[in-house]
Design a protein that fits this description.
Helix content is 24%, strand content 32%. With 189 residues, it is an alpha/beta fold. The chain binds 1-O-pyrophosphono-5-O-phosphono-alpha-D-ribofuranose.
């Protein structure tokens, strides 16, 4: 059984230490939503979630944003561990709606090397949105390889392997209600 909100040893045997609690997440996300609501007052906003990790954050964020919000999703893959370093990103699922002339907010769970975000920003910018901004829940600047600026971010985190609240380790732990640090993850193959 999962230890609710406290982290600790899970049924899988992995040790997870709480980094950002459920309450801290909720409070910060409400603040972000208030800021976004002010900035997009009287505008139609298209939130674009980057699959899979962002879906939990996006779902909570949009419920607190007080403006007319539409949602769409993009999927990306980088070619395995080695390709993250080569910087190659590929779209696995594209948007269903056109972004031309729309106010687009790209929603990410985490910005790590910045390669995914850079690629998505370049791709979306070419489609001529009215505006394009980024909201990321977690920013891990220690791993950054390319410069990207975040218009909204939730938390700056240390260089640790984080899971929960949408983020996975081998597809596990996306459903944890907090963000935790996975102790001693096996190295990426
Ligand atoms: C994560 C996250 C970002 C990307 C950030 O996705 O959701 O999209 O990595 O990393 P970067 O800054 O180094 O490019 P991941 O590839 O783990 O896929 P997932 O969201 O489906 O788990």
């Amino acid at each position: 059984m999962r230890t609710e909100g406290q982290g600790g040893e899970l049924m899988t045997g992995d040790e997870i230490k709480v980094l950002i609690s459920k309450d801290e997440l909720e409070k910060r996300i409400k603040d972000l939503a208030a800021e976004i609501s002010r900035d997009y007052a009287k505008k139609d906003l298209l939130m674009v979630g980057v699959l899979k990790g962002s879906f939990v954050f996006l779902a909570d964020l949009m419920r607190y944003v007080d403006s007319n919000v539409s949602v769409d999703f993009m999927g990306t893959v980088s070619y395995g561990a080695s390709t993250k370093s080569s910087g190659e990103v590929r779209i696995t699922k594209d948007l269903e709606e056109s972004v031309a002339g729309r106010h687009v907010l790209l929603v990410e769970d985490i910005v790590d090397t910045g390669l995914t975000l850079r690629y998505l920003l370049d791709t979306l910018r070419n489609r001529q949105p009215a505006s394009l901004k980024v909201c990321a829940l977690l920013d891990k600047p220690a791993r950054r390889r390319v410069r990207v600026s975040l218009d909204y971010y939730g938390f700056i985190i240390p260089n640790a392997f984080v899971v929960g609240y949408g983020l996975d380790y081998a597809e596990k732990y996306r459903g944890l209600p907090y963000v935790g640090v996975l102790e001693n993850p096996e190295p990426e193959k």
